[in-house]
Amino acid sequence: MILPIIAYGDPVLRKVGVDIDKDYQNLAELIENMKETMENAQGVGLAAPQIGKAIRLFIVDTSPFGADEDLEDDERAFLEGYKKTFINAKIVKEEGDEWAFTEGCLSIPDIREDVFREDTITIEYLDEKFEKHSEVLTGLAARVVQHEYDHIEGILFTDKISSLKKRLIKKKLENISKGKVNADYRMKFPLLKRR
Q: How many other C-beta atoms can be found within 10 angstroms of the C-beta atom of residue 16?
């Protein structure tokens, strides 16, 4: 089932997610719904807070980046097949050079800004079967995971841009929270007046 994506301004996007266990109610169905929702919105990641749940769960699918001809063959091949579910994730190390990349967010449609992030991360997480993993990621895969991980920490990509850029997009952000935005997918707006 395709779920509405929570828009900028909703308090759930600012909550630090709580850990869950394998008995979390309807977890398999929730993950499947998140995958459908992400695919429908043509996203490369989706975190549980973006569908209204303040839990430590996110999914990524970097396959759209696999079409980028500017990437080296091995990175392109890796991105084409990188589809994962992250439960109770913890980034244990961020390192390397910071680099800028233009990021967007399904909860903040029509806004894209350059965000600086370190290029290598080590992350520990549980998969859908609650098996533990530790992974080192670099490049675009690391960036997508960092972006989604920020969501379960109550952080948005707009928090990582300069104060000048924040001032420049302030009105756009207010409009998004009021439902004054066109998105090609279902959204739920926190400040939309109910009649």
A: 11
> Which residues are part of a known binding site for Fe cation?
105, 147, 151
Tokens (6 digits) for 14: 């600012």
Residue 11 and residue 1: Cα distance in Å, rounded?
Answer: 24
List the chain domain ranges: 5-178
Q: State the binding site.
A: 105, 147, 151
**Where does 5-178 sit in CATH, by number?**
3.90.45.10
Tokens of 85: 């579910």
In tens digits, the chain (195 residues) has pLDDT values of 999 999 999 999 999 999 999 999 999 999 999 999 999 999 999 999 999 999 999 999 998 887 777 777 788 788 888 999 999 999 999 999 999 999 999 999 999 999 999 999 999 999 999 999 999 999 999 999 999 999 999 999 999 999 999 999 999 999 999 999 999 999 999 866 544
Active site residues: 148
Quote the pTM value. Answer: 0.94
